[in-house]
Amino acid sequence: MKQNPLDYIIPESEVVRNITRCVNCRICEKQCPNEVHKFNEKLNCMTADESLCVNCQRCVATCPAHALKIQKNECAFRENHNWKSDNIKEIYKQARTGGVLLSSMGNPNKFPVYFDRILINASQVTNPSVDPLREPMETRVFLGKKPGEIRRDPDGNIIPELPVHLELSMPVMFSAMSYGSISYNAHKSLAAAAKELGIFYNTGEGGLHEDFYCYADNTVVQVASGRFGVHEKYLDSAAAIEIKMGQGAKPGIGGHLPGTKIIGDVSATRMIPEGSDAISPAPHHDIYSIEDLRQLVYSLKEATQYKKPIIVKVAAVHNIAAIAAGIARSGADIIAIDGFRGGTGAAPTRIRDNVGIPIELALAAVDTRLREEGTRNNVSLIVGGSIRSAADVVKAIALGADACYIATAALIALGCHLCRTCGSGKCSWGIATADLVKRLDPEEGARRLVNLMRAWKHEIKEMMGGMGINSIEALCGNRLMLRGVNLTEKELEILGIYHAGE
Amino acid sequence: MKAGELMKLEGEIRIPSGCAVSAMISKEGRRVSGQKIIESMIPMHERSNGLGGGFAGYGIYPDFKDFYAFHIFFNDKYIIEECEKILKDRFEIVKSENIPIRKIPEITDVPYIKRYFLAPLASVLARLQIDEKEYVVRTVMDINTKIKGAYVFSSGKNMGTFKAVGYPEDVGRFYRLDEYEAYSWTAHGRYPTNTPGWWGGAHPFGLLDYTVVHNGEISSYDANRRYIEMFGYKCTLQTDTEVITYIADYLLRRKGLTLNETASVIAAPFWTTIQQKPQREAARLEFLRKAFPSLLITGPFSIILGFSGGLMALNDRLKLRSMVTAQKGDTVYIASEEAAIRRMEPEISDIYAPAGGEPVIVKVEEGKY
Known about the structure:
Order of helices and strands of chain B: HEEHEEHEEHHEEHEEEEHHHHHEEEEHEE
Structural class of chain A: alpha/beta
Distance between the termini of chain A: 68 Å
Distance between the termini of chain B: 52 Å
Helix content of chain A: 25-40%
Number of strands of chain B: 18
Helix content of chain B: 25-40%
CATH superfamily of chain B: Aminohydrolase, N-terminal nucleophile (Ntn) domain
Shape of chain B: globular
CATH topology of chain B: Glutamine Phosphoribosylpyrophosphate, subunit 1, domain 1
Structural class of chain B: alpha+beta
Largest sheet of chain A: 8 strands, parallel
CATH architecture of chain B: 4-Layer Sandwich
Number of domains of chain A: 2
Radius of gyration of chain B: 20 Å
Number of domains of chain B: 1
Strand content of chain A: 15-25%
Radius of gyration of chain A: 24 Å
Strand order of the largest sheet of chain B: 8-3-10-1-16-15-17
Shape of chain A: globular
CATH topology of the largest domain in chain A: TIM Barrel
Oligomer: heterodimer
Strand content of chain B: 25-35%
């Protein structure tokens, strides 16, 4: 069939093979799920079709001769700062198909990363820094409501009853990723790591595989608008329940896991027929307003005998402070806010790249508002949406978060190379796939996650010690420990921090 | 324009300080003159740099013990009128006078310093439906945040704070503290890194009858400040002492915690320590830490909290600042250095160094103050 030249999209990447190194072992061919590499019998050499390449770096990493490089394709449209290459390519695609463009993972565009414009303080002279290798350094965090009135028994002793809460060994949790969007082995890695670390992972909205019920004490189960896989056992197999109202990567819309991925256990876990699309509606159809949210919060509390904290997760949108203030009065114990850079298995490109606001600003605005309202004690705050390092964690905590959600960072620890094509189902690293699951060894995956979190914990302690802080609660909301660089007055005002030098 | 005129006053910037603290209290409620406590600061002269000193005395106004004694700094006399209008709207002014001072060359730039003995107007109190102490606290916050150039630095009953920019021993002489008698005295010498610009930043810091003298620079400051400001307190000075005073007021008066419980919040034991405690004690400590995580104070501090009928001394949980205590007869002494205690009582035998986070609570016998 003759190809229409208009349908040819210039590939993003170029496969560069060093012929002097290549030994024609054909490992690249076997490793590439996108069928980029082929052995040409006539020429007796490997060839590549880069139009199929997603730049997942699997072939590069597995080539025993280190003969491969994936580079940015120099073949490009004439330079134009207004009509960028992506704009043009996307128009060709839409003109051909008439469809909505889909993308995976978080917003990759050039918006300011506020974490990179915030610097952390350290002690000098007037007070001592604390050496975490020699002195205790506490990173334990509790999430949930704080008790209201102090109650005492007739002898005057405090009755030490606390509202239900989560205990974390460090202020980081693995954020929601559904079974189906990521593989069985990826889920297993997260669950096992969370257990070993004394933190939590989150099932996402795809139900919970029976094999993982044993991780209940370290599991947060999600109730999203599709209500997939929600049943009594599911709710009981968790330490906390998260109502997903929104997601940073795609605020205002629901989710869509294609029928091709709804097979076998995924179908059983989601409680929907094999091959049917799993569509989560944009809103919860029983929540059209704040008072409806309160009813769902209490329904879930009733269903679990008030033994589990309820998290309400929302995307960071313009009016996030008022929204969070409403949630803080809804009976929820924890609010999770997801910034516009948060990842996703698949989202409409326009939504991912244009909707929502940076988590740093959302967090600062929410923490400030809840304090103004005097309701900050009603809830704990978890933030996610591109927490990339221990420094981001420290900055988020100092801005006012109680803990951070990480997902992309966790996937990278499992091997993700951020090629951003999770939606294809052909993840070469065994993460966002049903076919190549075996490429991810869950034991190794868990070990890598544990290593990553241990490393971050050490770094968090080093930074805390530098500030002379020996317990994480003294860092929470301690904005004086932060200074901005290259920020406007308005940005500083919203973040509630001073500029460096002030 | 002088360079100094561009400088920010304390409150507009945060100024770290090193310090000396000292205190004495008679468990029998015996009132003694301020002379001894002034002298205790002399051997610790090096711990101050002449930019702040102050004292608090309890039991000094027996003739007016039922009235709130407001000590107020005024930048000029027009502000006095403005401020007195607020006071008259809310209180019966039983007595108002200039606080007596001794003119000495060491203390300069003296503001107007007045004291008022006040009784809340019952009619206003009833309308607001709040208790008397809350009423007084709100008035103090209103004056200190809304009237520029007026600053209430003491507001308790039968007690008073006296402070200034200068060395503490000079400040004591300036205020003629040898002429006052108290059953409990606290003192402070300050070593701020910057010029505070005015007298409000000196210690002790007080609210109602709570006063705090403090040595250290707390690293949890902004976490503590942002938390406590949820409950109507306004940290206008940006000092550790101010926020610690508000925390004490909040926990003791508003939440009804005991002194020991308060100490377990602000210098909470480490989790590993809590786990080793007997079950009931562990549950109590765990509850307090989880209930008030944002009131944990980290970084170095030694504080002496004064209140009607007692004192509490407390170090940070790592004991990053020195503090020792001793007792002779019915009198308990607390100071940054042993030398200060020996100056007050040369014949002392047992000097005790409390552990980090271990509160030392001394109370005057009931009915004797």
